[in-house]
Amino acid sequence: MGMKPARSSCPIASTLEVIGDRWSLVVLRDILLRGKRRYRELLDGPEAIATNILADRLARLEEWDILHKSRDPEDRRQFVYTPTGRGLDLLPILFQLVRWGLKHVEGTEVPVPRARLKDERALERTIRARFAPVR
Amino acid sequence: MGMKPARSSCPIASTLEVIGDRWSLVVLRDILLRGKRRYRELLDGPEAIATNILADRLARLEEWDILHKSRDPEDRRQFVYTPTGRGLDLLPILFQLVRWGLKHVEGTEVPVPRARLKDERALERTIRARFAPVR
Questions:
Q1: A57: which residues sit within 8 A by CB, 6+ positions away?
Q2: What domains are there in chain B, each with its CATH number?
Q3: β-bridge partners, A69
Q4: Do A105 and B9 touch (CB under 8 A)?
Q5: For an interface test with B, which of A67, A94, A97, A116 has the most B Cβ atoms less than 10 Å from its Cβ?
Q6: Is the ipTM of this complex over 0.90?
Q7: Rounded to two decimals, what is the model's pTM?
Q8: Nearest CA in chain A to B93
């Protein structure tokens, strides 16, 4: 699936139409930064996403060609979700959300050493390499 | 108002709790990037935000110390909204949303020359300087 026409010509409003809800970005965080791939793994997080919301957001993200859904090679009855190139291009947005949260919201922390966050480009390359075989 | 404790220790989830809805970021785009300051100006956009949503989001953004509300010096019966330091720190998130939208959503464009977007730090400095007298 290619690009879809935007309702607004503003790139911010258009991007927010795709990923501009809290849950989509939390799901993408789990897949891109926490290595989760399966529905069951995604359901199991501290934010306690509801099953219907998770199913809806996964379907939307697949429809927007941000996630790719495929059979789980370890269990053919299950599916795994992996990011497409468009999905990986959301990494800088996630990094900026991390940065703002760490600076401005008390009690937030990251599970990776802060030094790694300093070189966001290197971190992005590492994450992209992890998903390289997908497409 | 200082920082508020986070419900989740994840900086992404915490940031999204503050600005993780489409309209908050559209309002911030109008104030930070389009020079809008007044309720009436914010109401008047291509995305046609509803009055109750606009009022709610402005109140939330003020409560979170992202926007500062003050009397309009040109008309003391009105108010103007300007970004605080925390609000200005959202600029890199907006820039990344622009970048993703321009690359992946057909029909999007920016009202500034694309060359200016290439140097995001310089653009950020220019915008920060514009709001410098606020706090």
A1: A21, A23, A24, A27
A2: 11-131 (1.10.10.10)
A3: A81
A4: no
A5: A97
A6: no
A7: 0.89
A8: A96
